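Feature request, filed as a ticket because there's no other form

It would be nice if the structure record came with a short human-readable summary line next to the tokens. Right now we just get the raw output. Example of a typical job, pasted below so the devs can see what we mean:
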Amino acid sequence: MLVGALVLAAGAVALATTSSGADVGPSGVAMPTGDGDGWRRVFSEDFTVTTPTGGFEADYGKRFSVYHGFADTAGTGRYSASALTAHDGVLDMRLRTTASGTPLAGGVVPLVDGRWGGQTAGRYSIRMRSDEVDGYGVAVLLWSDDNVWEHGEVDFPEGALGAPAYLNVHCLSDPAQKCIQHDTGVSLADWHTYTIEWTRERMSFLVDGTVVGTTTENIPTARMHLVLQAGSNDGRPPRRADGSLQVDWMTIDVPAAGAGPTASLPADPAARTLPSWVGDARPAHTTSG
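Raw output as currently delivered:
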């Protein structure tokens, strides 16, 4: 297993706070406002428009590209727009096996100014949770606009539905290898906000606003876009498996004109000088991506 220079933040990850009231949305944390700290908001969605079951694409098609009609990463499931519905303020990806025996997968790409990606730096946040669904996993990732693996792949979070959330950064020189693998210490079964901050100098990864890792290695320089995909893991999911990945909101920020934003660092200055993997086991890792 290869590991990169991931600096880990000291201390436990702060848990998401919850509040009462409609303004905080179904997950208990409101979608943050845009702009500030050298970033400019270019995309946000909190899924307030309710759609019929499986009818997400009709109402959200101008804001998302929806995966449909091709095999998922594991090759056993198939992406289908029918897996996606918006209701009660969330995007609901319902993973299950059809009557014909095909495991359903769901995938969306936020459209910035009506098109895929185009970013060479950005801050990407998603607030999500999942049921525990046997045989299914999720990956939120940055992926090459040109569909070239050697341009980079950054997965955060990634893991089996309802299981631990992992950070995985693939090596630019050999993308079949993961240069960084890290168990974030939180569960995909609970509501959390996951953020990737990507600049040319550094990438940082945050859970609920707390930095859980930062690296200056294997940083993509090509144009990338954010993808949310959930589908079958290795093998065929049990036919009885049925459950949802839920997303409360998503945001994308890019560097503001004339600004040079820097990615966040751990609050504890001492944590910035820790050698790689201090205080963290190197996990075995099997996911959908």
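Something like this underneath would help us a lot:
The radius of gyration is 18 Å.
Residues 8 and 277 are 7 Å apart (CA to CA).
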